[in-house]
Amino acid sequence: MTSFETPTRDRRLLLAVDAPSLLHRNHHARAYTDHRDRSHRPAWALHGMLRQILESIDAFAPDAVIFGLDDRTQSRREEFYPEYKAGRPPKDPLLIEQLDRAGGMLDALGLATLTPEGLEADDVNASAATWAGANGWDCVIITSDRDSFAHISDHTQVLRLINGGIHASPLLNPKRLEVMYGVAASNYLAYAALRGDSSDNLPGVNGIGEKTAALLLAAMGSMQEVWADIDHAGGENLVAAIDSWCAENGQRRLGSMLRKRLTEPGARERYDFNIAIMSGRDDLDLGLTPDRPGSPGLLPLDYERVARVVGHLNFQSTTDLALRVLTEPPASVG
Predict the structure, then answer these.
(1) 227-242, pLDDT tens digit by residue?
(2) Residues 269 and 236 in one domain
(3) Which pTM was predicted?
(4) How many domains does the chain fold into?
(5) Which residues of 226-249 are buried (b: 16+ CB within 10 A; e: fewer)?
(6) pLDDT per residue over 133-165, tens digit each?
(7) CA atoms of 75 and 223, how far apart (whole Å)
């Protein structure tokens, strides 16, 4: 039984895939198999990623699929902040090889890929969510990271792949995100900026963790309200709102402590810096042309191409699945 239900829809659906995230996850989960393609090259991460995407396409029946890839030759975020992602262990050369081959494999299938100059897959995800909203489509972002939670809206959901594959993974919409994290979707970026992100080597605002960040945003509504109150009322309304919330929930008063943390030297600068780094570019040209049948990214795909490309991965059950889900018309009624 899946952890989500695929709803009946009357809008077309774009699937946006964070390819590097899935490749990393599958590399570490499947390296023990040492699976090779028909050219005897390592293929366990490529196969694992493709298998998960095929299962997702089978579940969601999208009209188009786009894969975001990282530009691994340059990074605008690293130029802005040289310590960005510092401390991560070096990548396994066998993972690097499969990362390098992923775009070619997906392009050969006829799926759409985008490697934005100096940017990352999350910028493609952000742009896919914006594109879907502007064109009357829905969007599902598939990733194993939390970064894309900032793009959740009434038309965009995030399937966060965790242990157990797609059928055991949460499909997050605004309501489910708030239940899980106590944060409105519109506030997730602010929440992340307050708490920081250790995986990207981004410290949060000193003394504010996940629970206090969520409490602050729930009580005040937004960080714009927080900063305005600090600037124009010395944070008095902030203290009153936080202490009122704490009293209603049987907790010790935290208002004065939070005001102190937020007014410490460097606190607002740290928040603004994190926002600048974490904000995804949402205006990239995805190259999608849904009015042109057969253009990259649109389903269905050509049967012979699918058979040839997926067959090269040397896993017959995956080839059979690919032929079924990629070469038949999508279920959209829009």
Answers:
(1) 999 999 999 999 999 9
(2) yes
(3) 0.92
(4) 2
(5) bbebbeeeebebbbebbbebbeee
(6) 999 999 999 999 999 999 999 999 999 998 777
(7) 28
